[in-house]
Amino acid sequence: MSKARDYLNGIKVALPVILGYLPVAIAFAVMASDAGFTRLEIILMSTLVFAGASQIMAIGMIVTGASMLSVVVGTFVLNLRHFIMGSYIMKKLGKTSALEKITTAHGITDEAFAIVSATPEQKCTVPYLFGIITVTYGSWVLGTTIGAFVSLLIPPVVSDALGIALYALFISLLVPGVKKSWRLIALVAFTALLNTALTLLLPDNASSWAIIISCLVGAIVGVFFIKDEEVAAE
Amino acid sequence: MNYALLSVFMMLVTIVPRILPGFLLDKIKLGPKAIKFLNLIPFTAMSALIFPGILFINERWWIGALGALIAILLSLIKKIPTAVVVVASVLALMGIYAVV
């Protein structure tokens, strides 16, 4: 398959993400604007950081008077999960050059990971990943820019409903992969329950640890609980 | 607080876990158990990203639960593409918000 076609495939498969990203990006821009960020500072943060959850967390912390150090440490912990996702994506891509590793790193997000994990291995190439990143990064920065300029024009019923978009995307990528194996369904349910319990039990600022812990514990349990042939199936 | 400087620091601590895996994986040879573990990460990570977060999209948790149910049912139908699941779920939620 040609590089150009792989790139276009990556763009195509990532298009639904736009729907999920725009409302979150706009929400972030509105929060940051209320917290005293200038338009340029809002767009700068989205361009440099490109990690929605941590950006929204940062604004929340700044509003309550947190220090820069605590915001940076919180961001580090929250984004540690990208290490696991990056490992998976890089393993699936196979051999890559140092330049490819560095240029794709900024685009390792929950959404890129979700799409790659639902893609058969032979289709996963560097241009394909670049296609995904073009759409995800583009819509994140564009959405933030739109939000920085026109924050109050979207009716609440629309922005409220759009809150489901990213979750619906994750569900639609997860379900086809697990539905054929009751063991995988059980493992996914176990992880969901574990994460729910941890999120409710741990203090608010530790919920990012909950995701990391449940994801790792779930996979460790799965190594023994899931049969080898059930994971290999694409 | 200097917000531009904050953004630079946030970028630095975010890019480290994003960039390391590619270089580390070249250095170590993974055994079958480790590969199986990595292959299971998509399922457990996605599950943890969805739950319980989806229940917090509104103060009333059952709205998120209903949205999850709709998205799961739509995803079970083989012929429906991802984009349609997303759009249909959003429209369903708009309907729910219009009623309640």
Q: Care to give the gist of this entry?
A:
The longest helix of chain A has 32 residues, at 3-34.
What does this structure look like?
The complex is a heterodimer of chains A (234) and B (100). With 234 residues, chain A is mainly alpha-helical. Chain A has 2 domains: 3-175, no CATH class; 180-234. Chain A is 79% helix and 0% strand. In chain A, helix 1 (3-34) packs across helix 2 (39-49). The mean pLDDT of chain A is 89. By secondary structure, chain B is an all-alpha fold. Chain B has one domain (3-99). In chain B, 78% of the residues lie in helices and 0% in strands. Chain B is built from 4 helices and no strands. In chain B, helix 3 runs antiparallel to helix 4 (82-99). The longest helix of chain B has 25 residues, at 3-27. Chain B is flat. The chains are: A mainly alpha (234), B mainly alpha (100). The interface between A and B is large, with 97 and 71 residues.
Biggest sheet of chain B, in brief?
none
Q: Catalogue the unreliable spans of chain A.
A: none
C-alpha termini separation of chain A: 19 Å
Oligomer: heterodimer
Tell how many strands the DSSP assignment of chain B holds: 0
Q: Count of DSSP helices of chain B?
A: 4
Kindly state the number of beta strands of chain A. Answer: 0
User: What is the percent of helical residues of chain B?
Assistant: over 70%
What Rg of chain B, in angstroms, do the CA atoms define? 20 Å
Sketch the topology of chain B as an H/E string, one letter per element: HHHH
Shape of chain B: flat
Pair of chains with the largest interface and how many residues each contributes: A-B, 97 and 71 residues
Q: Indicate the structural class of chain A.
A: mainly alpha
Q: Helices and strands of chain B: which structural class? A: mainly alpha
Residue share in β-strands of chain A: under 5%
In terms of DSSP E residues, the strand content of chain B is under 5%
Q: What's the overall geometry of chain A? A: globular
Count, helices of chain A = 13
Instruction: List the secondary-structure elements of chain A in sequence, H or E.
Output: HHHHHHHHHHHHH
